[in-house]
Automatic annotation (TrEMBL):
One of its GO terms (biological process) is iron-sulfur cluster assembly. It comes from Sulfitobacter undariae. InterPro entries: FSCA_dom_sf, Nfu/NifU_N, Nfu/NifU_N_sf, NFU1-like, NIF_FeS_clus_asmbl_NifU_C. Belongs to the NifU family. This is Fe-S cluster biogenesis protein NfuA. Gene3D superfamilies: Fe-S cluster assembly (FSCA) (3.30.300.130), Scaffold protein Nfu/NifU, N-terminal domain (3.30.1370.70).
């Protein structure tokens, strides 16, 4: 098994490409070790000293490290953990995991606008962000403001604010006049 790695715009995050499917559909975000119990692979990765976040896409694993740790020191352990996991035959996610779109549900009068926002995110934004090892999902829409949740390499990335304001906000405002601003949520 050969695992490729790619740098991301976030220097604390590295994208690992195992050359096979990680998740059949959607994404899975594990921002802390406490959230990893739903995934044998995430649990294994958090066991490596210095790992602070794990994120799964359809064909990649994004890992975030502590600032004081160097990639050269933990990358071999992470490659080994990913390889061991896939060779073990264990599932990436536990049996109780169900794939979702990642977007928050929205009830109310702005349903048509929210549907347009989600469609633009799914068709234009999320594929590009996945290339960088992350994901951006819809969190809410209120009085012209779109709230988005950033995951994987996007969470804590120095260029994420610029991506939100100059990229996503401009895109959404262009296609959906009701959108006035885009803001991140924690």
């Amino acid at each position: 098994m050969f695992i490729q790695t790619e740098s991301t715009p976030n220097p604390a995050t590295l994208k690992f490409l195992p050359g096979q499917t990680v998740l059949e559909m959607g994404t899975a975000d594990f921002p802390t070790p406490d959230t990893a119990s739903a995934s044998p692979l995430a649990t294994r990765l958090f066991a490596v000293d210095g790992v602070t976040g794990v994120f799964f896409g359809t064909d990649f694993v994004t890992i975030t490290k502590a600032e004081e740790i160097e990639w050269d020191h933990i990358k071999p352990s992470l490659l080994g953990a990913i390889m061991e996991h896939f060779q073990s035959g264990q599932p990436v996610m536990g049996a109780d995991h169900t794939a979702t779109s990642g977007h928050a549900e929205h009830d109310g009068e702005d349903g048509a606008i929210v549907s347009q926002i989600k469609e633009l995110l799914d068709s234009r934004v999320r594929p590009a962000v996945a290339q960088d090892g992350g994901d951006i999902t819809f969190h809410g829409f209120e009085r012209g403001v779109v709230y988005l949740h950033m995951q994987g390499a996007c969470a804590g990335c120095p260029s994420s604010t610029l991506t939100l304001k100059m990229g996503i906000e401009n895109l959404l405002r262009h296609y959906i006049p009701e959108v006035t601003e885009v803001r991140p949520v924690a």
